[in-house]
Amino acid sequence: MHRLFVALRPPEPVRDALIDTMEGVEAARWQGDEQLHLTLRWVGEVDSDVANDLADALSSVRAPAFDLTVRGVGTFAKKGRAKAIWADIAPCEELAILQRRVERACRAAGLDPETRKFVPHVTLARLNTSTGPLDHWLAIQGRLGAPEWPVDGFVLYESHLGEGGSIYEPVMRYTLDK
């Protein structure tokens, strides 16, 4: 089985700006540089045939290159408790178009439709019940910015679960139109 997702990888200057924020929250599990990405579509576990069909379907995705902007931070919560800290991405119609085309390719490869709303973000930390207060960190990082992020392609990744967290292996890179 292959545990897959489709994502954008921030360039080094953007990753550096994000990494610079990663301190000041007790017991937060901060992401490593190699884990920073913007998920376009979580696929999950699929067999080799579906993985190959997906790789082929994604090669038909056509969209123009575009730029993204990081604009602040936020959290995802479940049952009133924060589960993750993330960097927010400014609204971008080209990103929305790309995500919809990736979703269509996933469905063409036989995957069930994604039911969650697309919220463009880069996860910075995972949180648990031992995580300290977030208010101070959120106030300090609330206006987080980073260099403009030129997007000229997307990646199909395989996620390997390990003791120190997930390891993301690029499987296939796809280029956007210039």
Which features would summarize this protein structure in a list?
four-stranded antiparallel β-sheet, about 180 residues, 4 helices, single chain, Cyclic Phosphodiesterase, Chain: A, alpha+beta
Q: Can you describe this structure in just a few lines?
A:
The chain is α+β, with helices and mostly antiparallel strands. The chain has helices at residues 12-19, 48-58, 93-108, 135-141, and strands at residues 2-8, 29-30, 38-46, 66-68, 70-78, 81-89, 121-126, 149-151, 153-162, 165-175. It has four helices and ten strands, in the order E-H-E-E-H-E-E-E-H-E-H-E-E-E.
Fold and architecture overview:
The chain is α+β, with helices and mostly antiparallel strands. It has one domain (2-175): Cyclic phosphodiesterase (Cyclic Phosphodiesterase, Chain: A), CATH 3.90.1140. It has helices spanning 12-19, 48-58, 93-108, 135-141; strands spanning 2-8, 29-30, 38-46, 66-68, 70-78, 81-89, 121-126, 149-151, 153-162, 165-175. The strands form three sheets. Strands 3-1-9-10 form a four-stranded antiparallel sheet, with helices on one face. A four-stranded antiparallel sheet has the order 2-7-6-5. Strands 4-8 form a two-stranded antiparallel sheet. A hairpin with a 2-residue loop joins β5 and β6 (81-89). The longest helix has 16 residues, at 93-108. The protein is globular and about 45 Å long. The model has no long low-confidence stretch (mean pLDDT 96).
